[in-house]
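Protein of interest.
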Amino acid sequence: MIFGHYIREIGRGARGARSLERDDARQLYAAMLDGGVPDLELGAIILALRVKGEAPDEMLGFLAAVDERTNRLELPSGRVRPVVLPTYSGAREEANLTPLLALLLQRFGVPVLVHGLLEGLGRVTTGLIFRELGIMPMASAAQAQARLEENGLAFLPLNALCPGAYSLLNLRSRLGVRNSAHSLVKLINPFAGDAVLIAPATHPEFIELMRGMLLERGQRGLLLRATEGEPFANPRCRPRLEYIHDGMTEVLFEAEHESLRVAPDLPAATDAATTALWIRRVLDRQIPLPKPLANQLACCLVASGYAEDLCQAKAVVAVETSGRSAAEA
C-alpha cells in the first residue's frame, strides 16, 4: 500500500487539503489500526489530518474500519436496550461522575457497558473511581458479556475492546497532539443490535459532526456537550440533551444558559476516593442527585425503552433518586 498518495491529498494545509472519499478513508485507517503504516508516514498522516480538520465522510470511513476491528458483544437478555458509556477524558477540574450515571442505570435494570482508558495521564479516570467502588475492569469482551448478564454493568478497557484504536491513542504521548482516534473512540458501540450510545462532544463543531454521523449510521444515541470530555451532564449547568433515533433528532432538554441558582452538593475534591464516597452517598439517598444528571438519567430511561415517555421517566427518577434533607441525613 502506497501512503504518499493519501498524504498528498490531506497534507496540503488547512486550505489546500482535500478530504478522502469514504472507502479510501476506511482502507487507510484500517492500515493504521493494523500497525501497517511505517512511523514516518503515520506521523505525517496524523498531523495532516489534524491540520486539515475532520470531515464527515472521512470520519465515517475511519469509523467503519474501527467497527471491523472492534470485539463485538451480543445484546443482553431483557426488554430494555443497553447503554454504552465511552469514558476517555477523566477529571481535572470537575469530579468525574460517569461512574454515578452508570450505577444509577444499573439500579434501574438497564444494562451498561462502560469502555475507556485505565490510565489518565494525570486525570482521574472512571476506571480509578470504579476501583474505589469495587468494580474491576474486564480482561476481554467475553468477560464483559458475562458480567453484563450477571449484574448489568461491565467496564471494558479500550485495549480489550479495540487494540488498534488503543495503539493510536497512545501516540499522543509521542507526538504531543491528539489524533482522530480520540474522536472515534467516543463513537464505538460494540453491540450487535440496538443499543444507546451516550455521545459526548467537546466543542460545538464536533456536536454537529457526531449528530450527522449517528444519523447517517442509523444509530440510537444521546448527544450532549461533554463535561471535561466525559459523557455526563454538567451538574452545575445542564447541556442540551438530544435523543437521536429512527433517523431523527429529538431535543429532550434544552441547554441551561445560567448555572443553578442553588449550587448542588458536589464532591469536595476530584480525587477517586472522594468522588467514590460522594457517589455512595448519592446512591444511598443521603444527598440528592443534581438536577442536570437527573434529567440525563431520565433521557437514558426513555432511550433504553425502560420508560414510555419523558414524563414517566422524570417521575420515576424523581421518586427513586430524591435525597434526604440535611436534617434527616
